[in-house]
Description:
It is a single chain. By secondary structure, the chain is α/β, with parallel strands linked by helices. It has eight helices and nine strands. It has helices spanning 22-32, 62-70, 89-97, 108-117, 131-138, 146-160, 175-186, 201-208, and strands spanning 11-15, 36-38, 41-43, 57-59, 74-80, 83-88, 101-105, 122-127, 168-171. Strands 2-7-1-8-9 form a five-stranded parallel sheet, with helices on both faces. A hairpin with a 2-residue loop joins strand 5 and strand 6. Guanosine-5'-monophosphate is lined by residues 41, 45, 76, 78, 80, 85-87, 105-107, 109-110. Guanosine-5'-monophosphate (5GP) is lined by residues 41, 45, 76, 78, 80, 85-87, 105-107, 109-110.
Amino acid sequence: MTASTKPRGRLVVISAPSGAGKTSLVRELVHSHPDICFGVSCTTRQKREGEEGGRDYQFISRQEFDRMVVAGEFLEHAQVFDNFYGTPRDQVNTQLDKGKHVILEIDWQGARQVRGAEPSCVSIFIMPPSRSELENRLRQRATDSDDVIARRLQDAVNEMSHWEEFDYLVVNDNFGEALQEVLAIIRGGGERSRSNRAEIRPLITGLLARDS
Ligand code: 5GP
């Protein structure tokens, strides 16, 4: 099939709280499947150690970000915590037109905008396996103060509170199984991962509890 006759790829939105393992899942999917690619976002935040401009993010100034907003160059954009993030529209369309499935790793605000702009997109929320495991994963450094950890947990709970807006919900307990579930959804299946399935309710109640 030539590029012009290939069916358009699927636009896949993936959101999760910090600590759910979303980035590792997305990296592995993109690494192992040439028909799946990552939509590189723009951000105004500082580059972290190990990150590469153009691969992880396009690191841009606030001025450039504002220009892109005004010019309508973002498919979606949002302030997340203290920084600004946006998905450049052109890059996504170019890949979809080539028949590639494009993963956007964005927050719930961005997911909501993409759903409005591209109703045919598929949205997936990744959950950690339990509240205690989430807390362990957020307690990255023994030196972090209780305040810092409490803030991270609150941010995670805020993000998770939007889970019902997503078509699918994948619990990242076993990495390999979560990977297969996400892959099945991207390939057009994944019925057992629908977010409205009843058996996930107790897990969600535990994850969203105000105090552990
Ligand atoms: P981090 O700065 O830790 O890489 O990402 C912080 C949060 O911003 C994560 O929840 C991530 O999914 C979200 N994010 C990254 N890129 C985008 C984007 O282009 N748009 C939106 N709305 N959120 C993004």
